[in-house]
């Protein structure tokens, strides 16, 4: 019986192949996810290990590491057949088996049987012809070590993946990422983070955490991008709660209302979003009201 860890490594290699041209289209993601169902039952942690490779381009170094991991784990004919089957399903997902696909499968079998043919090299070459032109990608480190940040603090994870140096300690960068995410949730209530809201968020990070303009802007830019793609409010509020004092959270509530009023007037929906965040931060109704009354009647639409 093939163990789950081996299946996950094969799945990651399939994702790496699809990233060969530096892009992963929604249609390709759908194909990959449909194939993942053939792996059997996957829990949330398993899916996270796969999705972290779907999140951004996979480097040549990562593909090589995944190839080695799969190759070194093969110890039975069943595992060999499984690799061949899954890669065949991926490469023929368009319903057409061409000359290159057949040649690739032959090379794959040769590698699995102990030949020196490079699995990833052949896979990447073929996938480039199937899903697009080759583009260079930036080398990344092993992603599994960042699973916790990928799940709990996507903004901090993205800062690391994009090589953005905030000149902050990891603990401080994580806390500010949670804060920026919560600011983004309020700004994005209307599904649009406008220029005034972005400027207000940068100003808040600068004034409340003594950040330089460039660092504050970098965090807000990443937070805005991640917010529009969808962030988990529970994880953001829990993360910020775990890393702050009650007094800090009370002051931060005022910041959330500043974001809500950045366009001139806080909407009912934005105020309710802040109320929801206050509950997640384990603040009282009195704390919520104290922050709310820092806005003028005009800003509150009264």
Describe this structure in words.
The protein is mainly α and 302 residues long. It folds into two domains: 4-131, TerB-like (Orthogonal Bundle); 153-292, TerB-like, CATH 1.10.3680. It is built from 16 helices and no strands. It has helices at 4-18, 26-36, 44-54, 60-73, 77-91, 99-112, 119-131, 147-152, 154-161, 170-187, 195-209, 213-229, 233-242, 246-260, 268-280, 285-292. The protein is elongated. It starts with a helix and ends in a 10-residue tail after the last helix. The model is unreliable at 124-141 (pLDDT under 50). Residues 179-292 form the Co-chaperone DjlA N-terminal domain.
Give the biggest beta sheet. none
Query: What general form does the structure show?
Result: elongated
The helical percent reads 55-70%
- The SSE string, one letter per element, is HHHHHHHHHHHHHHHH
CATH architecture of the largest domain: Orthogonal Bundle
Compute the number of strand runs. Answer: 0
Structural class: mainly alpha
- Into which percentage range does the β-strand content fall? under 5%
Q: Whole-number radius of gyration?
A: 23 Å
How many helices does DSSP assign? Answer: 16
Number of domains: 2
Provide the CATH top-level class of the largest domain: Mainly Alpha
CATH-assigned fold name of the largest domain = TerB-like
Arithmetic mean of pLDDT: 82
Distance between the termini: 67 Å
Which residues sit in consecutive blocks of at least 5 with pLDDT less than 50? 124-141
